[in-house]
Design brief:
691 residues; alpha+beta; 8-stranded mixed beta sheet; 5-stranded mixed beta sheet; 22 helices; 26% strand; globular; binds zinc ion
Length: 691
């Protein structure tokens, strides 16, 4: 009789040919009802799977509480959507891919007629019928050639292309597809197909047992998307949707989407005249004066923190010889994302990272251990090629400023240096109000360079530092870079979305490649330990995150315009001008509205521009040398002398205080932790919707 080992360690004998679903039923009817899929010997499988009969099989039944459940639900819903699309549009529709993503799923279709938002209702109605009928997902394993014949006969050209890739390239294809599609075991010559009625899809699975297991779903939008994100390939139509295990969670999610639309940094960036994008520079942001003001404040704060922490600053060129990138290894590992150019017939590259430039400075003269630790920062402008399909405002650009720094130190200084970086990260995130920070430690991957001893030292130092600072962290076993173990920081914004920003990496490759040395106390040459670290990651992207986190209501110290003087009528313009001069004298960023609009209209206008303080001046104020203060969030604060307002504002700026919450308007609630867990954290950026 086959035996399965359950997560609690107990071993159960099961009937020959019993499926996972039947085993679940034997364990308990509650578990059978809640079961979504299973993990059999470490692999995700359908409930219909029959465990093998040799030896002990490890089996974990996944319920809607499991980490993977949400993505299995959503991916299954994408199949149901595709089946519904087939019913609505018939044979004309060709199917591309339909993975689950962070907050839902999508499916790409090739269809001559244009789908509109109205069509989504028809598709949803058809999906509801499929769900009501509890149509099953039927798995079949077939030879690649047979699957190809089937798809070719049906004119499914995307699937044919995927199958050809699988046949030639094997499992690597799965990476590109993000998700569960079409990733066979290495060396296997078969693929799996899943049938739902007359809709057949190429897919690795797993799926829910049947469509009736989808409790709540919604289709959200339809947009264009190039096949494989490549603008030289056909334009497909992508439908985004989402699904949850309860109607309540779905409803909350839809409310969050509405809130996110209001907070979209591209929209706020335009409304507040912060930045723009132009087709003359795709993926390159243009910062307007107001946006520059915010950026400069950010950078000034960053510099202050780093100066206080003993950092020095350098700047290295944007264009450097191609030979340098061969030496650094970027040519081998990063070429696809780099831009190249020529100077006097010599080959050059535009830097995608700052490290090689920084290393040339290090190697410019002999170094002594007495100089250590060297903490060398660079706000380096880097360029990386991103496919046009994934560009997204400031969140995904081709040119950005990395808040980089390299630390060179002795092995015994490493732990303290990492602690120093942890403290900087903590201070900076806190200043912006990011309290919910997740830390991950990624360790040595299978393919890596460096000795065991080096990895032990580097990983140990990262671990010790996290422990000494009492930080909870998750270990991603084997997910470090091939040259470095690393700590990654993820911050959660007010909508519950997670963003990877900071990173700390102990580099085991560059010091060798660049033959870095220092003279030790023993008068002999040694290799220094090298750390790369960034706190904000990309300053441009961080600004985008801040705009959405604050909904454009920047803290006073960051606000492009901090106060707006509003004369009640033009009789008080002269007094208004005097107040403006006083505020400017106190280094407060102030503007005034001397238009002939009514005061109500002026206040509305200033509110729309999200200006934190409005200073209304009329007869009483002019006579008393005062201003009537209106806080954008709190409303009327009463009348106070100009000096008192200056003191209030200066105090708020120096204290870098966050803005108070607006009256009668609650901050949106992020989703609960448990709900997020299932959404996969790796692709936070990669799968933001392009919309
Ligand atoms: Zn599937
Ligand atoms: Zn670096």
């Amino acid at each position: 009789m086959p035996k399965v080992r359950l997560p609690d360690g107990s071993v159960m004998e099961v009937a020959d040919g019993a499926s996972v679903a039947e085993i679940a039923r034997k364990i308990g009817s509650g578990l059978a009802r809640a079961a979504v899929a299973a993990r059999l010997n470490g692999k995700l499988v359908d409930l219909a799977t029959v465990p093998g009969s040799e030896g002990e099989q490890s089996l974990e039944i996944l319920t809607d509480k499991s980490d993977e459940a949400l993505s299995i639900l959503r991916h299954s819903t994408s199949h149901v959507m595709a089946a519904a699309v087939r019913r609505v549009y018939g044979d004309a529709v060709k199917f591309a891919i339909g993975p689950s993503i962070d907050e839902g799923f999508y499916y790409d279709f090739d269809l001559p007629e244009r789908m509109t938002e109205e069509d989504l209702g028809r598709i949803e109605a058809e999906m509801a019928r499929i769900i009501k009928a509890e149509e099953p997902f039927v798995r079949e394993e077939v030879p690649i050639a047979e699957a190809r014949r089937l798809m070719e006969n049906a004119g499914q050209w995307c699937k044919v292309e995927l199958l050809d890739d699988i046949a030639s390239a094997g499992p690597a294809v799965g990476e590109e597809l993000h998700d569960a599609q079409a990733k066979p075991e290495p060396g296997s010559a078969t693929v799996t197909l899943y049938r739902m009625g007359d809709f057949v899809d190429l897919c690795r699975g797993p799926h829910l047992a049947h469509a009736g297991k989808i409790p709540a779903f919604k289709l959200l939008s339809v947009s264009g998307s190039y096949w494989r994100g490549d603008s030289s390939r056909p334009m497909l139509q992508r439908i985004y949707g989402t699904a949850f295990f309860s109607k309540k969670c779905l409803q909350e999610h839809i409310e969050r989407i509405e809130e996110a639309k209001k907070r979209d940094h591209r929209r706020i960036g335009k409304d507040l005249d912060l930045f723009s994008f132009h087709e003359e520079g795709p993926g390159f942001a243009f910062f307007h004066p107001a946006g520059m003001t915010v950026l400069n404040e950010l950078v000034e704060f960053w510099r202050r923190v780093h100066r206080e922490a003993g950092y020095v600053e350098v700047r290295t060129p944007i264009i450097l010889s191609e030979a340098l990138w061969h030496r650094s290894g970027h040519w081998d590992n990063y070429r696809e994302a780099m831009y190249f150019t020529k100077i006097d017939d010599e080959d050059f590259a535009v830097k995608p990272m700052n490290c090689p430039g920084g290393l040339l400075i290090y190697g410019d003269r002999p170094r002594s251990y007495r100089e250590f630790p060297m903490r060398v920062a660079e706000l380096g402008l880097v360029h990386r090629h991103e496919k046009s399909g994934v560009l997204h405002g400031l969140l995904r650009v081709r040119q950005f400023t990395q808040d980089d720094a390299h630390i060179f130190c002795l092995p015994e200084q490493l732990t303290d240096e990492v602690i120093g970086v942890i403290d900087i990260v903590d201070r900076i995130y806190r200043a912006f109000g990011f309290e919910d920070v997740r830390v991950e430690l990624s360790t040595r991957p299978e393919h890596s360079i460096g000795t065991d001893e080096q990895w032990k030292l580097a990983t140990g130092a990262l671990r010790d530092a996290l422990k000494k600072r009492g930080l909870d962290y998750k270990v991603n076993e084997g997910e470090g870079a091939f040259y470095a173990p690393k700590i990654d920081y993820h911050i959660r914004d007010c909508l519950g979305r997670s963003w990877q920003c900071g990173t700390i990496q102990v580099d085991l490759a560059m010091p060798d490649r660049f033959d870095l040395a220092y003279v030790g106390a023993d008068n002999r040459e040694h290799r220094p330990v090298m750390v790369h670290r960034a706190v904000l990651g990309s300053i441009e992207r961080f600004l985008g995150i801040l705009i959405e986190h604050y909904g454009g209501d920047f803290p006073l110290w960051l606000a492009p315009v901090q106060a707006m003087v509003l004369p009640i009528s033009d009789r008080f313009n002269e007094y208004g001008a005097r107040v403006v001069r006083q505020l400017k004298g106190a280094a407060i960023r102030v503007e005034w509205d001397d238009s002939s609009d009514k005061i109500g209209a002026k206040i509305r206008q200033a509110s729309l521009r999200k200006i934190p303080y409005m200073l209304v001046v009329g007869e009483k104020e002019a006579a008393g040398g005062t201003v009537s203060v209106r806080d954008k969030a709190l409303g009327d604060l009463g009348t106070e002398s100009v000096e008192a307002f200056i003191a209030r504002a200066t105090d708020e700026i120096r204290g870098m205080r966050l803005r108070p919450e607006a009256k009668g308007e609650e901050r949106p609630q992020g989703p609960g932790r448990a709900e997020i867990r299932g959404e996969g954290v790796k692709k936070e950026l990669g799968t933001r919707r392009e919309a």
